[in-house]
Amino acid sequence: MRWKRAISVLGSTALLLGGLAIPARATASSPTVTIGVGHADFPNQNPFQHRIFEYTDFFSRDVSVHAGDLVDFQTAPTEFHSIALAPAVIPLPLFLADTDDAPAKGSGLPKVTGGPALPLAFTGPTCGAFGMPPCTFNGSRPVNSGSIAGFGPNGPAAVDWNVQIDSGTPLGTYHYFCYIHPGMQGLLHVVDPSVSGTTQAQISNDSSSQFAADQGAALALEAADSSAGPSSGAPGSRTWTVHVGDTTSGNHVAILEMMPQALPNTVSGDTVDYVWGALEPHTVGFGPDANLPEPFGWDCGKSFVGFPLQGGPGAPPACVEVEQGRPEIIGDPGTPTRGCWSVALTE
Ligand SMILES: [Cu+2]
Asked: What is the Cα–Cα distance from 181 to 81, expressed in whole angstroms?
């Protein structure tokens, strides 16, 4: 028995948006500070080993600047996020429960349909990116990056998004966050000129500690999820558990991996429970890959128009259903936001 893929919305949207990726260096003027968006961890980000740690975290999470400063939110290579700086966190969901289709097979839970944050995840930057003037934040209105993928013209690269803190911005605490990853948040304090801002060295220090903690939590969770044995009972009556990705308790690392990656000791009659972790939608399919539907696409009622893996979703087809005022994007088939799906093994 084998399973071929667990495709996260992030991994697949990063692929979809590869063509929109923007070159790495964004501005002629130097940023006052650079805040990391996600983190490179190449030993644990290896698609050929079918395991990717996605760092849904800012490095660092608490930074002080002055009005007039330029802040560079720098997305790490291969990471994919949609970030904003705003007076308060805006909790827009990326997915909603699909209310007009039958529940997902296996889990019996609702399928998912695109939520109001999804367009942000598919729309490129309009300011602050390479070749564009910085976005301007004045303390009263949010500024959005749109989708930023950590890819340059020649492959994975750090990608900048620059925000000018307007000279008239009131002193106070503001929020940077990701529309895709609810746990990914930080505080930007605009402080009086008589008070020091955070130095880049301090940000690096804080980031090192955060990264060590995030990575440690992810490695521990991966080990725990990969080590579960079967339920008790005779071979042929046991239940095995496979984690379809997982998210660390602080929501700062999403593990994109089937855990364990292999179940060599299953026999006919055993059952495998596929358990979805929090916050990351995935699909489970049984290969070969060429026989599997695309993981995301347009819902046309009785049919499904999958997104191509490159070039983005494009315009919705004429057949698309409209749900809550939006063309319905759906994870297919049987993709719950979380839950459990059981497969009985037979010969
Ligand atoms: Cu994110």
From this structure: 8
Question: Ligand 1 center to residue 237 CA distance, Å?
Answer: 41
Query: What's residue 274's pLDDT?
Result: 87
Closest CA to 33 of 274, 171, 197: 197
Longest CA pairwise span in the chain (Å): 74
Residues lining ligand 1 (ion), CB within 5 A?
81, 178, 180-181, 184
Residue 121: how many other CB atoms lie within 10 Å:
22
- Place 332 in a pLDDT band, splitting at 50, 70 and 90: low
**Partner residues linked to 8 by β-bridges:** none
Name, in order, each residue with C-beta under 8 angstroms of 178's C-beta and a sequence gap of 6 or more: 37, 56, 81, 82, 83, 84, 184, 185
Q: Which segments of 169-233 are extended strands (E)? A: 172-178, 185-190
Nearest to 191 by CA among 139, 145, 126: 139
* pLDDT tens profile 214-239: 999 999 999 999 998 888 899 999 99
- For residues 9-22, average pLDDT: 39
Ligand 1: centre distance to CA 288 (Å) = 30
For residue 13, what are the CA distances in angstroms to 78, 84, 182, 237? Answer: 11, 18, 17, 39
Ligand 1 center–CA 175 separation, angstroms: 14
Closest by Cα among 142, 152, 134, 149 to 69: 134
The answer to whether 183 and 56 have CB atoms below 8 angstroms apart is yes
Give the pLDDT confidence of 165-216 residue by residue, as tens digits: 999 999 999 999 999 898 899 999 999 999 999 999 999 999 999 999 999 9
Cα–ligand 1 centroid distance for 248 (angstroms):
14
Phi/psi region, residue 194 (left: phi>0; alpha: psi -120 to 50; beta: rest), is: alpha
Instruction: Give the whole-angstrom CA distance, residue 214 versus residue 250.
Output: 8
CB 253 within 8 A of CB 215: yes
The CA-to-CA distance between both ends of the chain, in Å, stands at: 10
Residues 67 and 78: their CA atoms lie apart, in Å, by 31
Tokens of 85: 């700086």
Q: Which domains does the chain have, with CATH numbers?
A: 9-91+117-217 (2.60.40.420), 220-344 (no CATH)
